[in-house]
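Quick check before the chapter quiz. The format below is the same one you will see on the exam, so make sure you can read both the input and the output lines.
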Amino acid sequence: MPAANTRNFSFICGQDDFLVGRMGRRRFEELAGGAADEFSREVISGFAANVDEVGKAVNRFRESVQTIPMFGGRRVVWLKDVNFLADTVTGKAETTLTCVEDLQRVLESVNPAEAAVLVTAAPVDRRRSFPKWCEKNSDFVLADGGDDAGGVAAVVEAEARSLGVQFGPGALELLLAKIGANTRLLVEEVHKLAAHAPEGAAISEASVAELSPNAAQGEFFETADAFFSGDLQWTLAALKRHFFAGGNARPVLAALQNRNRILLQVRALADAGEAKVGPRGVDGLQRAAATHAPRYGDAAEEKSSYNVFTQNPWYLGKLAGAAALPPLRRLVDNQRSFIDAFEEVTRRPGEEEEVLRDLAVRCLAA
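Here is the expected output.
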């Protein structure tokens, strides 16, 4: 990270509060290493739930920057977790905008010889004048992996390299599919997987499947995997474990329906010759999206089982390739069976496990 001796202050921002906070902590430790004593260091929370708290945070920051160190020397001040620079109701309020102008004046007046100042903010609307001003007038760092899968993957790969490990074939993709875009959890999982990997070996897909939770898919990943693999005994065992742990039927049915919706769409594209399930996922998905995605309307904006084009092509291949892709008629029958099971659960609330066991036998033993 660049040194903070050529500008009045350091400004670290991004959309991911975990990444921004972690980078901010490292910068603060670097700056505080040269402070004369702990009384020369101060951390001020910039988190504000309303406009009144914005004003209080800016005033505390101003007072801290202008305070003379008790034993002389250089002060180190960190305004952390600033959240009022985002495109939110609080961030757009007139009072907040006035406070941000005050904050800018404080930062302009900082003497780097007397105070080392750090500001960390997430999320940030970079279209506004203050972030643009910071970019030109501070030691500016954009600590943002991005919301897209490519950006998050880059963060995960960088974390693995810092630990001296790398991902084997399919391992990174499976980790992203299981965890989702939760950067904090992804980083923790990389540390866990790196500690588990044999010295000099890559993190394997099997290790990810065994050790990483299914945070992005809920707690019912195993039952859905078992059901759509066509393995009746595995499905019954997964259901037994789920209900033994105190689970109920409705989220399991939701997971089965979500998976079935995705496979219905993949099957339809495959039957139409517009996509093909291959070793690298569902080939042709992007071309098919150009034709069909607009028909989904607003559903194309967020990841959803209702829209196959919002899914990761590699992950779709894992879902569709775990067993032979069922015929369209079988998938339609599955969806009807799930609806029937849901209605049965409402009629027999004390027999949910029996209802799902009957469902599995009917669908998989046929």
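If your answer matched, good. The CA atoms of residues 77 and 146 lie 28 Å apart.
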